[in-house]
Amino acid sequence: MNIVITGHVDHGKSTIIGRILYDTGSVSRDSVDRIKNNCISNSRQFEYAYITDVIKEEQCRGITLDSARVFFKTGKRQYRIMDAPGHTGLLRNMVTGASYADAAFLVIDAAEGICENSRRHGYLLSMLSIKKIAVIINKMDLVNYEQKAFEKIKKEYSAFLQTICLNSEFIPVSGLNGDNIVFKSINMPWFNGHTIIKTLDSFPQEHTEIDESFRMPVQDIYDFIKSEYKGKIIAGRICTGTLNAGDEICFYPSTRKDIVKKIVQFGETSKKTAYAGESVGLILGHDTLAERGDIAAKSGENCPYSVNRFLASIFWLNNIPLIKNKKYILKLGACRVEMHVEEICKVINSSDLKIQNNKGFVNHHNVAECIIKTNRKIALDLSEKSIQTGRFVIADNFNISGGGIVRSIDI
Amino acid sequence: MNHIQKLESLSIYILREAYANIKNLCMLWSIGKDSTVLLWLVRKAFFGTIPFPLLHIDTSFKIPDMIIYRDFLVKEWKLPIIYGINQNAIAEKKTFPDQTLNRLKCCDLLKTKTLINTLNGKWPRYKYNHITNKYEPDNDNSEYTGVIVGIRSDEEGSRSKERYFSQRNQENRWEFEDQPPEFWDQFNVDCAPGAHVRIHPLLDWTEINIWEYIQHENIPTVSLYYDNGSGKRYRSLGCYPCTFPITSKAKNPAEIINELQNGQLKNVPERSGRSQDAEDGGGLETLRRNGYM
User: Fold this and answer.
1) What pLDDT, in 10s, does the model give residues A72-107?
2) Which residue segment(s) compose the domain that A275 sits in?
3) A233 and A189 within one domain
4) Please, what is the angle between helix B3-21 and helix B207-217, to 10°?
5) For B41, which residue in chain A has the nearest alpha carbon?
6) Does pTM top 0.95 for this prediction?
7) Beta bridge partners of A233
8) Would you give the distance in Å from CA A375 to the centre of its chain?
């Protein structure tokens, strides 16, 4: 399972990871002794964050770098933790790392409280559709392990999470002393919840999609000359649902229909059924014309919308602001289309949540609600129904510069 | 789906995105286990067809068995393949084995420079003719704007900073501090004129995943990876003056997996037999920033 640890800079992300590695026995005592001795001889205080650095170095074959992937195991399963940068300037790397996570921890310093990136990262996690979130209130030792300090931050941050439709457990910990990380704290008898590790193990492994209707964005149509397959092959990876040979499918936005004659994967006999996550090829009964960028759905199930105008929530990561009426490229599934922003309804500063209306642009690191107009009809879903076909990226001048989720088509 | 099936499906997805978006594409095939797994995945992604050429950078110092194995598979699978070589450096004996250069400079001339100039079409390319069974000068000198490479993020540090689609600028340099974001399986497929994109479908695979897949799919791999009775085998392949076998009795993928998980290789870096990495305090990162694979 992929976990991302986010939060404001210096709120103790690396220390917590170091503690997890140490207390789960993922790092040898020898290595830790070596670091401790090194600290003594350099008159530095030992910190658990140094363990992460050493592990990185070991795992990354002895070269200095900023890789942030470390592995550890519990009795239940294997985890890969990504330490997302807490600096505002590295938000695009935080998004890149976090977008591949199954679950997230958000670290807040008990003494310092909620900071700029505490909210911003929370906001981005919600936009990245990461639903499994736990908030870690770290450095409880600095506030004498007092429940009052914990409850105060919990109350304030819960209220914020509610505004972005997220729920979370809150765990009071001390990375420094190891309270409630792997072992239950004796310093906080007032806390009845789980430790970090127990919370991790309690996260369900699979994404639970709200709507399990079949969706497969068409990646390509192959008709290679020397192919052993007769007829065109529709290639794609199934986002959700299942497909059986013999099913009738419909391609959107064109709404052309055909029967699935065979489901093929090279080197294997034809499949009867294909499932979400699989990269497959479809051979159709009537060689119906499909195009790269179409979304295939199954007749009789909920179908995607075919629209050229919709309301979206977007986040912007480029230093050059997003502006109204400028041409951009929108990419959703395998579809690539020219677009512009027709209206910027409101801009939300992702750190202090201040809302501004009637702005003509969206600065980097901010979130906005806007009406997007594409230059032709495309197939899409509402993100609340189907995450993968309800989200898109916006590219400006060759580079992905922002992302968004489809909120409504009734505008 | 199990973990390996998920990795396979994502790699196939990435390969198909590369083929759909990039006009002039090729794939580096080093003959090693990773790029051979990649070749296997290409066959799966395109239903048995290899729709772009494989590119091999020949240094003339590859372990001879590698070249024998390369040409065997080329014939067997009817692979479209071209190779590039730095003929001048070899003729002028500007190499580490000729003792005129250090290892890093040799890698730079025989691999990095050759890669750059073969990709941009400035140096001659040699293409395998399946009728004559010979490599012949390739008349096509158009520039490749995308190159698929079989690197993995767990191999060594600088490779863990890569994206699935990483851009290289006009000077072939990699500005890793300033990469655009990549998320939701949407990739930065476009690049400015003169620049190119490197595509990394194996980024999430580990060394053990590679061997598990080789075992499961029964992928033919060069015999150098296995102990043939001498008690030695190669863990990572390259040029013979800079690549050394390890002591190991593993004779097949299952024994290699066991050795990596529980045996003597449990905490030993994969590229420890590759001497160029040790030079200049982190040679590979320096090499890679300048365009090395």
Assistant:
1) 778 888 888 877 766 666 777 778 878 888 899 999
2) 215-298
3) no
4) 90
5) A266
6) no
7) A222
8) 28
